[in-house]
Amino acid sequence: MSDIYVKNEKSYRAKKITFNVLTYLFLIAIAIAILIPFYWMLLTSMKSDELMRRIPPLLWLNPKEWQLSNYYRLFELVASGPRRGEPLFPFFTYMRNTVVISIITTAGTMITTVLSAFAFARLNFKGRDILFAILIGTMMIPGEIFILTNFLTINRMGWYDIMNQSYMDVIFAMTLPFMTSVFYIFYLRQTFKQIPNELYYAAKVDGTSNFQYLLKIMIPIALPTIITITILNSMGAWNAYIWPAMITTKDEFRLVSNGLRGAFTDTGTGRTDYGQQMASATLVTLPLLILFFTFRKQIMRGVSRSGIKG
Amino acid sequence: MEIRMANLTKIFTSKKDKKEVHAVDHVDLTIPSGKLIGLLGPSGCGKSTTLYLIAGLLKQNEGQIFFEDDEVSEMPPEKRGIGLVFQNYALYPHMTVRDNILFPLQNLKVEKEEAKRRTIEMAELVGLQEMLDRKPKELSGGQQQRVAIARALVKKPRVLLLDEPLSNLDARLRLQTREEIKRIQRETGITTVFVTHDQEEAMSISDEIVVMKDGVIQQMGLPQEVYDHPLNLFVAKFLGNPQINVFEGDIKGGKVLIEDMHIESAKLPDQQILIGVRPEGFLVDNTLKSDFKFAVNLVETIGRDTTLIIDMPSEEGGLLDKKSFKVIVDASHRIQTGDLVHFTVKPEKMHLFDLDGGLLK
Amino acid sequence: METKNNLKAWFYLAPMLILMAVFTFYPLINAFIISFYKDYLPLANNGTGSISGYTLHNYVVIFKNQLFWKAILNTFVLAFVSVPVSIIVSLFISVSLKAIPKLKGFFQTVFFLPYVTNAIAVGMAFAVLFHKDYGLFNVVLGLFKITPIDWIGGTASWWAQMSALMVFTIWSSLAFKILVFTSGLENIDKQYYDAARIDSASKWTIFKRITVPLLSPLILYISITSLIGALKAYNSVIGLFGEKLGGQPYSMITIVAFVYKYRADFAFQGFYSYAASAAIILFFITLIFSVLQTMVSRSRVHY
């Protein structure tokens, strides 16, 4: 039995150090792999046309060679054609649209989520559990199914008029279908349920109405979760692609994702201007990154908690 | 397998205010081979920390640990050859009892047939051979603990460590289980150290007890020895149920006085002292000559013994941090509430301490 | 006190229910119905649409459609390779992170970046990375004296295109999994690790026989959700290949892309129904997998 009691102390330290070094190397390798696309995006965006066309491509530029011309040109006004007078890449237009849609959808979602989560968590009514189960069931259904009919509905409401779409039309079309989220209702309901019953009874005895209780007690207590939901939801508008692409008729209504994809893919010469493409991609990526670094802890905590379903 | 700790120190630094806590403070301790040793003390005294240092789950800041002649201070736990029974048993919930016990043998690359045999042998030793295919959550607390013991012993460790083995059990099970532990230790002869805050537990089954406080060893010895001859006030107060009575008194002219009542003689210079007398250390003086007399406030007779609870008359002085003291006498003294009773103190039952709690000879 | 809530509760639920009725429940049922329409023209008759009857034929058309089977192939390959690979890689990453408490925060932030970026933008960056002439991948291949491969261009093979898409997909999907697994690992009682060390277990044994089994409920849950998400791949294809959906048109089409293609052709009679049928088929596929995995989880999840 004494064979397990190895006496060589030095080998423990060596083993431990080897293990740590290997672990760090592994993680560094992964980190590099994660960062490469960002690096390449930034790098390409700063290459002048001529540098861009080098084969094999330059792996790195020293600061003297950094060119911001790609970025400048994005904001230049187009000289001729259907988009005369508009910037080449209407970044601010797309941003504005995305932000507007994001705010409206998030506001709407917050309202429906808070009210519904309250009802499911705090109130007792017939059919509560069945209804909740049905809602959970809808989470499993691919969104593509809804889109088909929603497109027709939007059309019937007159919001998708190829000739005559107004900004208001677009807003309605883009926001209404997305003002509810069963997922967030589920998540908030969990949080609400953790608020002890005694608080509710005490408030009732004090004559507080349900709505006041919701407003003055539950929302403040659940504020971290609500803030997390707000942040996560507003990030969603950034990645929306198919729906905006489907229902917008004019470039000026587009959101950031579909505006981006449509740009620079085929210029007259049939060659893609990758430098400009990457510049616009970088611009689009930036705001969300800034948001991330500001609210880093919130976002990561919120995502991890929402990922581990109860 | 003797365990020897030399100058063992473990310091914890709190993250918030950077305060250092010496959980184990320059401890020298030798655990004799083949014995069941109780490591005893209040919460936070360092006993669990000491146990984890022996196990290797914590790394000491200073000092060394030896198993016989092997220095194990730098060895990781997997190489030290110890068995540890955790306070919460730490049974792998997703494995059956059998697999839990087999696990260490598989890691040690023990041959399959032999591993199987030893598993059954261990299960029989702890009386769980019927439960081998159950999962931990299907077992009661006491049964889970026995599995933990089996798992610890199956690899024939040099040392067995138990962390508060009885705290999570209900009272009835506690008595039963502590006898089990004693029995198993006797049968296997393994050097065993267990940690507890319950002095009765430690006293009842240990071959020797070690009393710790604030990371420092207060006393080590045979349970009865430590009980009868505490080396300081802390040890005297920690052992014994009901707790020892501690009087504030003086030595004047070779006489030990409490409230100016003479109780004994002592060849010591005049000074203020603390006098410890256990409840059973008093004798009823039927001759009524003794100075030490009180009116009895409360009498409780349970079968063989009568407990007298007596308030010290004066506001100041008298008892150290209590208002009344207890005396246990034979029930044949038919004492009633309100009786004035004279007491003498058995000299060997009187413990004299200076005001810091140190023993006076 | 409780019964009065009946009416009040429905007031609270009203906004959500109305919106869901219009944009979720009705569409769900409608999708089924549309899939059985014959010669459907959704925008005719001022928007109410016109049909010439009902039929099961739409499904037959789909099942006979080569493009559909291509979509199935692409989607399944993508899902069934990227999900296991990304789960295994993220598991190793999470365990590695746990072993180095010092720089853990820094690495976690870096690893989370893909989650907070725009899929299209990054997809386009990957497109440049995989470019035959201007891309980093071919530079690296050149170091090993391998001739440059056309990954995503007009002459790209299916294998090259799928590899590029796979790399992009796995890259994007690690962030969420790492976060969730890291959190799950923190919830495992440290005592089990201590006990395993006392039981002389090696690091690998601890990983294989303690960590993974205790994490298995979470792993399974992530598998289901990831698989269902992967079956719905679309944005990533658009990001990497653009509207062309491949080096050659539609070579990397996915099931969802297939649905959208036929939806976009709504002016052609009956095409909308094809889209609906394909969507319903997708629904059943994801349903089957969720049910399958739930059944497997009952038997295999450890405790």
CATH superfamily of chain C: MetI-like
Count of helix runs of chain A: 15
Query: Overall pLDDT of chain A, averaged?
Result: 82
Structural class of chain C: mainly alpha
The helix fraction of chain A, in percent, is 55-70%
Sheet with the most strands, sense and barrel status of chain A:
none
Count of spatially separate domains of chain C: 1
Labels describing this entry:
heterotrimer; B: 361 residues; alpha+beta; Rossmann fold; 2 domains; six-stranded mixed beta sheet; five-stranded antiparallel beta sheet; 9 helices; 21 strands; 24% helix; 34% strand; C: 303 residues; mainly alpha; MetI-like fold; two-stranded antiparallel sheet; 2 strands; globular
Explain what the structure shows.
The complex is a heterotrimer of chains A (310), B (361) and C (303). With 310 residues, chain A is mostly helical. Chain A has 2 domains: 2-74, no CATH class; 91-307, MetI-like (MetI-like fold). Chain A has helices spanning 9-45, 49-52, 69-74, 91-122, 128-138, 143-156, 167-175, 182-193, 197-205, 210-221, 223-236, 242-247, 256-262, 274-294, 296-307. In chain A, helix 4 (91-122) crosses helix 8 (182-193). The relative contact order of chain A is 0.12. The model of chain A is unreliable at 1-7 (pLDDT under 50). In chain B, the strands form 5 sheets. Chain B has a 6-stranded mixed β-sheet with strand order 6-7-8-3-9-10, with helices on both faces. In chain B, strands 13-12-11-14-21 form a 5-stranded antiparallel β-sheet. In chain B, 41% of the residues are buried. Chain B has helices spanning 47-55, 77-80, 97-107, 112-125, 141-153, 171-188, 199-205, 223-228, 233-238, and strands at 3-13, 20-31, 36-40, 62-67, 70-71, 82-85, 159-163, 191-196, 208-213, 216-221, 245-252, 255-258, 261-265, 271-277, 282-284, 293-295, 298-302, 305-311, 324-330, 340-345, 350-353. Chain B is an alpha+beta fold and 361 residues long. The longest helix of chain B is centred in the middle third of the chain and has 18 residues, at 171-188. The model of chain B has no long low-confidence stretch (mean pLDDT 87). Chain B is elongated. Chain B folds into 2 domains: 3-238, 3-Layer(aba) Sandwich (Rossmann fold); 245-353, no CATH class. The two termini of chain B are 36 Å apart. Chain C has one domain: Orthogonal Bundle (MetI-like fold). Chain C contains 12 helices and 2 strands; from the N terminus they run αββααααααααααα. Chain C has helices at 5-34, 57-64, 66-99, 104-112, 119-129, 136-143, 158-186, 190-198, 203-231, 235-241, 255-264, 271-300, and strands at residues 37-38, 53-54. A two-stranded antiparallel sheet of chain C has the order 1-2. The mean pLDDT of chain C is 87. Classes of the chains: A mainly alpha (310), B alpha+beta (361), C mainly alpha (303). Chain A binds chain B through residues 1-2, 4-7, 9, 12-13, and chain B through 70, 74-76, 79-81, 108, 155-156, 158.
